[in-house]
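== Protein entry: sequence and backbone fold ==
=== Local backbone shapes as whole numbers ===
==== Amino acids and backbone structure tokens ====
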Amino acid sequence: MTNVALLVCAAIAGWPMFHGNPALTGTVTGALPENLELRWTFKAGAPVKSSAAIVAGKVYVGDDAGNLHAIDADTGKSVWSFKAGDSIEASPLVFDGVVYAGSADGNLYALDINTGKSNWVYKTEDKILGSPNFFVIAGKTKIVTGSYDFKLHCIDAATGQSNWTFSTGNYINGAPAIAGNKIAFGGCDGHLHILDIAGKPLADIEAGAYIPSSPALADNRVYAGDFDNEVICADVVTGEILWRAKVIFGADDGRLYVVALATGKLVWSYEIGKELTASPAVAEGLVVIGCVDGNVYAFGKVR
């Protein structure tokens, strides 16, 4: 896809990062309008694989040519663009006047939100395909991102210097989820890793298959999909797997599945017929997801 489409959604004030918040729950308050209207499209010039971050009247999104675009949310006009050394596949993070974006060139870029000028560049040893996340401790912001160098990196937002790294057994493809003092992420080593914000391991949960996606954290539980067509729910305190749901969760079989948080039991599913490689978002119970057929689908209230 080379166009970024903005749908009118006056009730939603902002979406600053992948899945909307550090816990990656993908939910927002406020309802979508009953009838959505296409306001504008923006020609990026190369495929756009990530979702956009939307903050203070601007839309931020990367493309496969390595450009990070800042776009006026009202007009669809370019405000600025920044060129990285390779593709920007993951959603950027916007926080406290800075846009953070990882690239397949192995760098995490921190850019001024108004000008697109570089504040700093943090280099990992391989490509970054997952979105960055953040936490604030003692008034200082820390940025957390995974890399194909098998490491999770924690970086000081003010200086761009490393605070710590945590090594795993394979690629880290998705974004880490953060809630309270816990960081959860999956990897191609087939494990769900739970750390504290100092980088100390708290739990190591063996999933039994690659976890290429990003988990979500809620009520001391972590939820993640794996490459064995399962959704796993685990306790982040004990590391115990509470349930496994054997479904293809909104992906290769062209169906969207909704399962109960408490049990993993199927609530409903809907067949679209094309691959669903995007993550859904929920606004006041309305499930919204993009599809490779070029459409955005909205489904009725979640029960």
Observations:
- The two ends are 33 Å apart (CA to CA).
